[in-house]
Amino acid sequence: MWYGSGKASSKNRTISDAEIMQSVIERTQAVIQFTPEGEILAANNIFLKAFGYTRPEIVGRHHSIFVDPEHVKTEGYAAFWRRLADGESFTDEYARIAKDGTTVWIHATYAPFMDDSGKVVKVIKVASDITRRKTGILSISRALRHLSEGNLVHRIAPCGLEDVDLLTQAYNTAAEQLSGMVASVSRAVESLLQTAAEMDRTSSDLSGRTRQQADTVQEAAAGLDKLTQTVRSSADGARAVERSADAARGTAEGGKAVVESAIAAMSKIEGSSTRISQIISTINDIAFQTNLLALNAGVEAARAGNAGLGFAVVASEVRLLAQRSSEAASDIKDLISQSSKHVAEGVALVEQAGGELQKIVAGVAGIHDHVTEITRGTENQTAALAEIGGGVAQLRRVTEQNAGAVDQSGASVRVLAQDAATLSEQVSLFRIGSGGVPAARGAGASAARAS
What we know:
CATH architecture of the largest domain: Orthogonal Bundle
Number of helices: 9
CATH topology of the largest domain: Helix Hairpins
Strand content: 5-15%
Keywords: Chemotaxis, Transducer
GO molecular function, one term: transmembrane signaling receptor activity
Low-confidence stretches: 1-11
Distance between the termini: 81 Å
Number of strands: 5
Radius of gyration: 73 Å
Shape: rod-shaped
Largest sheet: 5 strands, antiparallel
Pfam family, one: MCPsignal
Helix content: over 70%
Protein name: Methyl-accepting chemotaxis sensory transducer with Pas/Pac sensor
CATH class of the largest domain: Mainly Alpha
GO cellular component, one term: membrane
């Protein structure tokens, strides 16, 4: 009996309801009865059909023939039957083993049946075969586990139950869409990896060229500094030469004045020599006349005889003096002639020296003008080199800033490559190909890891 007793008038009605309920359960549910120790007493046809047994094959055997042998050995299984024998009921989903070894899932209630004294005399299990539903749910569970492992290839076959198949279809659709999305992300990551690797190579090349340019600019700046110093020294030297040329021109012009004074003095000497020559000629004429007069006096003294002897002696002495005067005048005239000749030669040489000195003055003036132009040109070059030096210094600062920016850009590119590689590793956890090929495992990921 499944129910307790009441009054006599209602007892028949209660029994009748129990019989009706039992009939319904017998026709719709798998029912099996056990002793409190688990020995099989009876089973209806639905149960036998679900597990593939005949009634004689199971009656008298223990419930453990439907249970995994490993679970039978556990304390939990023994405690399960002890609690049933103590009057406790259990309702749950259970995995049981059919005759052919397949797993049958049931939703079952194990309920002890007690006699009027409250003693458990049998255990009745009423169960529904939920194998298809459970199989479908377990397939969804396994699919979700595959999904958690990144396997987007796994699909679920429909189990034939509408509500479960709706979940199955939803999962398959989501997996398909997710697979497509991951494939797109994988392609984008692959492209990103390749782009990041190319950017890293380009950034490295640009960094090297920028640093080379910075070194070249620095060398050019150093060379320009040396050139500026050289030009400045040249300008100082040119200014010194210009001052020396000024002094030389002053000296040459002073020499020219001296030569001109010398020429004037020589001209005066030449004039004086001419005048002396004229005076000597006069003296020579006087001596000649005196000699004639002395000769005439001697003749007259001779005519006078003894009276003219004294006069003759005087006349002779006068004639001798006249002759000596004439000879001295002649010697002086020769000397003056030689002196005039030498003065003429000196005048010619002085005039020649004056001409050469004039040329020197003109040359020194030309040198002075050229040196002045060189000085101005050197000063202009110094100013231009100073401006160029400022521009080169600015270029060097900009180049160094560019080098710093390139290094920073390269660091950013490397961070991007590392992030892309990390993303690639994460995407590669998903299998999206028909053969379960991992996503984002191309050369780009290797290049990004290398960078």
